[in-house]
Amino acid sequence: MWKLFERLIAAVGILVALLASQQSVAQEMFTGEPIANIRVEGNQRIEADTVISYMQLSAGDRFEAAKIDRALKNLFASGLFADVSFRREGNDLVVHVVENPIINRLAFEGNSHIKDADLQNEVQLRPRVVYTATKVQADAKRILDIYRRSGRFAATVEPKVIPLDQNRVDLVFEIHEGDITEVRRIDFVGNKVFDDSELRTQILTKESAWYRFLTTSDTYDPDRLTVDRENLRNFYLKNGYADFRVVSSVAELSPDRNAFFITFTLEEGERYKFGTINIKSTLKDLDPESLRKEISTVEGDWYNADEVDKTITRLSDRVGDLGYAFVEVKPEVDKDNAAKTIGLTYDIQEGPRVYIERIDINGNVRTLDAVIRREFRVVEGDAFNASKIRRTRQRIQNLGFFSKVDLKTLPGSSPDRTIVEVNVEEQSTGELSFGAGYSTSEGPIGNVSIRERNLLGRGQDVRTDFVLSGKRSQLNFSYTDPYFLDQNLAAGLDAFRSRNDRRSESSFEERSTGGGFRFGWDWDEFLRQTVRYTISDDDIFKTQSDASPAIVAQKGSALSSLVSQQISYDRTDNRFTPTKGYYARLQNDVSGLGGDTHYLRSRLSAAYYHPIFEDVIASVSLEGGHIFGFGGEKIRTTDNFMLGGTSLRGFAASGVGPRDTLSSDALGGDQYFSGTVQMSFPLGLPEEYKIRGRVFSDFGSLWKTDFTAPHVVDSFAMRASGGVGFTWDSPFGPFAFDLAYPFLKEKFDKTQYFSFSVGTRF
């Protein structure tokens, strides 16, 4: 016991002596006397003057604790040194440094799913950069974040440092990627109205399944989970549950780190109906009741937040169209918890007077500013108009030059000024594509296409493509300048050569060579007109021995000089896959400015699309045409209308219309009409499969021919068919299948019960 006490006393004595010596050293260093000289020791690559410059301390400064402490912190903050110490020799300050090594080589090992280049772009360290442990750990975390974003939460990263001579190191990140961390189960707690399966269809995250090998929706993504919370909220608000909230969304990782279990805890609340719907306005000379037709919220219907937002947008756009530049629509909510109703009053007020001070465009490296600016529906100095801003964003997106278009407003130099900022991300606009497929109407199909949609960043389109199928070959070249001479005028040139085998329908082959030019312009946002001139040499050859006399009489070439115009009015929501809206088109072709053919041909078409439910789209389309020759001239079969195949399902290509019963040749008709009533809908399969079904009925007729003979039959009688089909937008290309039965037909018509096409580009 006594020996232990003696040792304790000795240890305390040593500690006191050490503290006393440190205090003595500190008192000796921090005397306040001027520093005569600063010497640097231990530096190898870094010049002594550079070290001193980082210290922000120089000869003549005094030995003071605050200044010395600041100099020490500055050197460590530079990241260049692993260790720094100070000592005083007389009136000299001696700085001893240990430099951090330089990275000689940076490498990644064990990564197979993510390329070295992608990892290198993410990390901050590079060869010939100073090595620090802090930066290495930060880069290891960045690599882990990449793998987690790709769904691999079991990934591990271990940095290895290999020392070299001359204070250099090789840095190697050893990566164990692990398997993709799937979402094994998604559960909901607190839901009584909608079952789990219904709620799972409303979110982007999906449970892992064997058929989701083409998507990543069954891997965990925290950002996607945030979107899922908002999707659930929107779904309940759309169905009347105004008090709904997501209490929590928890993602639990399994102990083996191979799967996530996600649980959403919900509070559904009560369901509400719309109460009294009113509209009022403080704008001068504006009758609020005249706008009531823009309101889609109806008293007594279940509350729907989507309809409220749509009504606000429609009212804002309508009032803006009436000439009121500064408009704000505020819904006043009257919530009755007892009656479970939500009354609304749409208050149309004069909004703050805001003008566009400046338009800034960012992110366009290749595309010229002018190409984007000409799509704007507003200019600097105009009154701010939200409807025109939305239309501007749609027009820029429709260019197809950008993968992302973000348009936002920022505060200007004063409260009544705003800055419109457009941020775009460019995507590849050059295309070299090869295609292959099969169609029941054309047999095997192959094509090669070279296209640049944004030539030299000026928005000009140049395209050359070659198509070869079992029945036709075609070579096309086209050039389009959408703003010719910087005017709202599209101009283009075309050249083509084609060969079409029509022996199975009309016992001849057709060859055409020609070219032309065109101009197009917009009369307003939705009305567009195009005028074109085409000259071509059209040759009918290889007529079969048993061909119709009408076909034989047309054998040989004819020069066609054609002037065309098309005017179209398009109010659909999407030019390629419309879901609502309508369009109408009128086209006229006049042949006779020189050449061998003389006729007037006209076509009129229209379609209407309406969503019956959210994903169920009903559509009606109609079209008709008429052609007649000048001076009693007969119309060639190649210029006539044909009907059947894709234009009238249930019938073969050119299967309807005037026909020579002896040779069974289709002669084409001078007049026709056709239409389609169709409903498309999802088939209940996972959305990522992009498979939609349809039911349809096609109808139409083609009649009147200039070639008459006892064996030529012609009938105005209506033809009609009904059927079902589906379309799959597969990763390998579009696949379409239709099965149709012609329930109204003539005995001389050619039928085809099913048709399909499949193709791909690579």
Describe, in plain words, how this protein is organized in 3D:
This protein is α+β, with helices and mostly antiparallel strands and 762 residues long. Helix content is 18%, strand content 44%. The chain contains twelve helices and 36 strands. The strands form eight sheets. It has a 16-stranded antiparallel barrel with strand order 16-17-18-19-20-21-22-23-24-25-26-30-31-33-34-36. A hairpin with a 4-residue loop joins strand 28 and strand 29. The chain is globular, with a radius of gyration of 38 Å. The N and C termini lie far apart (88 Å).
Describe this protein with a few key phrases.
alpha+beta; 16-stranded antiparallel barrel; three-stranded mixed beta sheet
Largest sheet: 16 strands, antiparallel, barrel
- Helical content stands at 10-25%
Mean pLDDT score: 86
Strand order of the largest sheet: 16-17-18-19-20-21-22-23-24-25-26-30-31-33-34-36
Q: Compute the gyration radius: what is it?
A: 38 Å
The share of residues in extended strands comes to 35-45%
Overall body shape: globular
Give me the secondary-structure category.
alpha+beta
User: Runs with pLDDT <50, length 5+?
Assistant: 13-27
Number of helices: 12
Number of strands: 36
- Terminus-to-terminus distance: 88 Å
